[in-house]
Write a structure and sequence with these properties.
Blueprint (H helix, E strand, L loop, with lengths): L1 H16 L4 E6 L4 H12 L14 H4 L10 E8 L14 E2 L9 H19 L5 E4 L7 H7 L4 E2 L5 E2 L7 E8 L19 H5 L5 E3 L2 E2 L5 H7 L6 H7 L2 E3 L3 H4 L2 H4 L21 H4 L2 H8 L4 H7 L9 H16 L5 H7 L5 H15 L13
Parallel strand pairs: 3-10
Antiparallel strand pairs: 1-2, 2-7, 4-7, 5-6, 8-9
Helix pairs in contact: 1-4, 14-16, 15-16
The structure holds iron/sulfur cluster (2 copies).
Keywords: 4Fe-4S, Cytoplasm, Iron, Iron-sulfur, Metal-binding, Oxidoreductase, Queuosine biosynthesis, tRNA processing
GO molecular function: 4 iron, 4 sulfur cluster binding; epoxyqueuosine reductase activity; metal ion binding
GO biological process, one term: tRNA queuosine(34) biosynthetic process
């Protein structure tokens, strides 16, 4: 018993040193129900173009395939919420919260997990450890739920009692046997279905079942091809990611705010630290005028936007421009009809058509032909 207490003490001390907000332990066993759900989800093709999810699927649900001899999984959480939780305004450019004003969390998280993992192997001899942020092979949310860090909501996010779903997850798989902790009490969705009702593309097909192919987060970040025409209006003004199904969640209304200092050790372009700028037409204009991948990489250095690449982000910006109904953007879109990327040319043409439609009560002035 004395040994158990000291193992937990050391782990919690290491987590505190890295300023993680949450830390829990899960056994490294196969979670049978989650495995079956995952295999069916793949079979339905709901992973879209994320082919890596299809590759060696056993690595997603069997931790021993990743680290032979693994006994425990340490789940770490970093809160990224902001106060107040409110529904995004579709007259402005919208960006998922994790990407707003912050450097790429993978870099911040990786640094912390790497130091944590090193200290762990120094504290306990002859153990192995491997760490991952969300690009790792393991399905981390089911293990986070198994560790009792929170519960999985109908919107498929992990909902924690402290921070709601505004939590980024990372994990350390280790051959160290760590006794499980006392389960925490947390809520449930009950009869609520706000996330299902608000999802503009009906990506949440039913409770707990997210079809990535329809999800705005997937379409604007992971998807590298065209955005299906029938979904473009529903994307509204989401430029990068989507938070709607989290913004409406009653558990997030009660969530604590995050501590911004955790993100400050990696620098980003000063404009990108400004929320007002990120939701402005000026930001959209800036994106629509980025000429090369190199220019894009310099402007968005150390930020999550890099993941979309120049072509992907301009594609998204065209859709937002078309849906915002602001005709100031027409010349910017017209310049893109000569872009070397066919994807950009096609999305720019779509946005131009949208902006030239009769105004239907929009505030923009009429076009002078
Ligand atoms: S992120 Fe947006 S599009 Fe995706 S499920 Fe949630 S509300 Fe729907
Ligand atoms: S919005 Fe309601 S149904 Fe959806 S995850 Fe939150 S509590 Fe559950």
């Amino acid at each position: 018993m004395h040994f158990d207490v000291s193992v937990h003490k050391i782990i919690h001390k290491l987590a505190y040193e890295q300023s993680f907000d949450l830390i829990r332990i899960s056994k490294a066993s196969v979670l049978q129900k989650d495995k079956e759900f995952y295999l069916q989800w793949l079979k339905n093709g709901e992973q879209g173009e994320m082919a890596y999810l299809d590759r060696d699927p056993e690595r997603r649900y069997n931790p021993a395939k990743i680290l032979p001899g693994v006994k425990s999984i340490i789940i770490a959480g970093l809160n990224y919420g902001e106060k107040p939780t409110k529904i995004s305004d579709n007259t402005k450019v919208n960006i998922a919260r994790y990407a707003k004003n912050k450097p790429d969390y993978h870099k911040v998280f990786e640094k912390k997990l790497s130091t944590f993992s090193e200290s762990l192997t120094q504290n306990f001899s002859k153990i192995n450890a491997k760490f991952y942020v969300d690009y790792g092979p393991l399905m981390e949310r089911p293990y986070a739920a198994a560790s009792s860090m929170g519960f999985i909501g109908k919107n498929t996010t992990l909902i924690t009692p402290q921070f709601g779903s505004w939590v980024l997850l990372g994990e350390i798989l280790t051959t160290l046997e760590i006794p499980e902790e006392t389960p925490q009490k947390h809520g449930s969705c009950g009869s609520c279905r706000k996330c299902l009702d608000i999802c503009p593309t009906k990506a949440l097909k039913s409770a707990y079942d997210l079809d990535s192919r329809l999800c705005i987060s997937y379409l604007t970040i992971e998807n590298k091809g065209p955005i299906p025409v029938k979904l473009r209006k529903q994307i509204g003004t989401w430029l990068f990611g989507c938070d709607l199904c989290q913004e409406v969640c009653p558990h997030n209304v009660r969530a604590q705010a995050y501590v911004p200092q955790k993100w400050q050790d990696i620098t980003i372009e000063p404009d990108l630290k400004n929320s007002m700028y990120l939701s402005s037409i000026a930001f959209l204009k800036k994106i629509l005028t980025i000429k090369s991948e190199q220019e894009f990489k310099i402007f968005f250095k150390n930020t999550p936007f890099l993941r979309a690449k120049r072509v992907g982000l301009i594609r998204n910006a065209c859709i937002v421009a078309g849906n915002l109904g602001n005709r100031e953007l027409l010349p910017y879109l017209e310049n893109l009809t000569n872009d070397e990327s066919e994807l950009i040319r096609e999305h720019a043409a779509w946005a131009i058509d949208e902006l030239k439609k009769p105004l239907h009560g929009r505030n923009s002035p009429p076009i002078v032909q």
